[in-house]
Amino acid sequence: MSFQTDDYSDDIVHNVASACSNTIVVIHNAGIRLVDTWIDHPNITAVMFAHLPGQDAGRAVVSLLFGDESPSGKMTYTVARNESDYNVPVARPSDEFFYFPQDNFTEGVYIDYRDFDRRNITPRYEFGFGLTYTTFEYSDLSVSLVQNASTSYNAPESPVIEGGVESLWDVIATASAVITNTGDVTAKEVAQLYVHIPGGPVRQLRGFDKVEIAPGESETVRFTLLRRDMSEWDVTEQAWVLQQGTYPVWVGASSRNLPLSGELIVG
Prior knowledge:
mainly beta, 3-stranded antiparallel sheet, 13 strands, globular
């Protein structure tokens, strides 16, 4: 057994699924839980990562399973197909630092979906993934720089506040998109905005907006991009700097489901 699998509970799932043609698996987990040992079983029709919702867990799960509410949660981490897909080694009792954990952070910024994107690994459920009882269509992406906003390499001089100089929180770009509920159930969708910083990860989450949409209706989601959102830390200058060049931008339902794309040109 590892921290991402559990042979005992996997056996329970297999035993139930072998006798029930409509098996729904609800996982109360505090972290990543792999599902590939049973997810393709023909009798397993759904899986819910319920995490640890508290004293009303049962009531909440039942309301979702019976359709009183449509699920609207999104995965805040990547669920891989294999434990070896993660770039973080699993600690073993024989390891030098098993009882005294140490991390040198050699992965840098390439954690979770950023690492999966870099190595082009297909996950079981990507970061940001989540289903509802309806379907959504994305359209009409608009991205633009804010008029007269500074796009200089270094942040304009300003007072130092918690988190850095105040100008890091200047809005320098905006984005919007239209989401249409193309199904027949009222549900909420979490639209996600990703940006590629030149020289950085393939894409990074830089905004999200949750909207409830009735069947056949549309809603506009709007995002703001701060200087901080589009900057990277320069270890030489010991400051957040804004690269000059093209910043690809995507909007969609998850880190791997991004039907809308555009770009911002800084410089």
